[in-house]
């Protein structure tokens, strides 16, 4: 028994919205906060800060790992820059 599904793509694929490996490694150990917590800047409390601590390279796609005190997230470039703010050094 097999099932076939039609998948419809929408939107334009922009390859610039993918991390290059070097670009992802440059972000290592940087702090990020969620967009909703931007009122905490420039010195957010520790429970709002996520730390970029890993890079994954799978099938031509590079993603980063962000560790928050209560969760861990795997993000592509579009997710990082759409939903998070990199805390200025």
Could you list the spans in which at least 5 consecutive residues all have pLDDT below 50?
A: none
| Number of structural units classed as domains | 1
Q: Mean pLDDT across all residues, rounded?
A: 86
How many E-type strands? Answer: 5
Give the strand content.
Answer: 25-35%
* Rg over CA atoms: 16 Å
Order of helices and strands: HEEEEHE
- What structural class should be given to the helix and strand makeup? alpha+beta
Strand order of the largest sheet: 4-3-2-1-5
Straight-line distance between termini: 56 Å
Please count the helical segments: 2
Query: What percent of the residues sit in helical stretches (DSSP H or I)?
Result: 10-25%
- Please state the overall shape, judged from the principal axes of the Cα atoms: globular
Based on the structure, what is the oligomeric state of the protein chains?
single chain
How many strands, which pairing sense, and closed or not: the largest β-sheet? Answer: 5 strands, antiparallel
Question: What attributes does this structure have?
Answer:
89 residues, alpha+beta, globular
If you had to describe this structure to a student in words, what would you say it looks like?
It is globular and about 55 Å long. The model has no long low-confidence stretch (mean pLDDT 86). The chain has two helices and five strands; from the N terminus they run αββββαβ. It has one domain. It starts with 20 loop residues before the first helix and ends with a strand. With 89 residues, the protein is α+β, with helices and mostly antiparallel strands. It has a five-stranded antiparallel sheet.
